[in-house]
Amino acid sequence: MDAIRYEIARSAEKAYQSLRIADTFKLFMIQNEAELRSFISSNDGKEGVNWRIEGDRLHFVKQHADQKEIPSAKMIGLCLDYATELNRIV
Predict the structure, then answer these.
(1) Roughly what angle, to the nearest 10 degrees, separates helices 33-43 and 2-15?
(2) Which of 32, 38, 61, 78 could lock 50 by a disulfide, CB 3.0 to 4.6 Å apart?
(3) For residue 57, what are the contacts with CB-CB under 8 A and spacing of at least 6?
């Protein structure tokens, strides 16, 4: 059951910004708020997403990590070089 909840949680984080608490009970197959809070504390911060209850909603707040830049010009140049060399070989 925990493995299924974990996978559902990862999907919910990606699909929703927030969920109603009542819907969260159904979605995660949780019976009461104490069980939900325990589940939240065990999942908070995983995969770069913080969970927070505000009012009657559970919010998924994505952490903004420094994104690495892909050197696109360099990659294009390398691909063209490889294609040229492959053309010479063939």
Answers:
(1) 70
(2) 61
(3) 18, 19, 20, 21
Q: How many residues does the chain have?
A: 90
First CA to last CA across the chain, in angstroms?
Answer: 55
The model carries a pTM of 0.61
Domain count, the chain: 1
For residues 37, 39, 43, 44, the Cα torsion angle rounded to the nearest 10 degrees is 0
For the chain, percent of residues with pLDDT exceeding 90? 9
Please indicate, yes or no, if residue 82 is contained in any of the structural domains.
no
What pLDDT digit, counting tens, does each position of 44-82 carry? 777 677 888 899 999 988 876 555 677 788 888 888 888
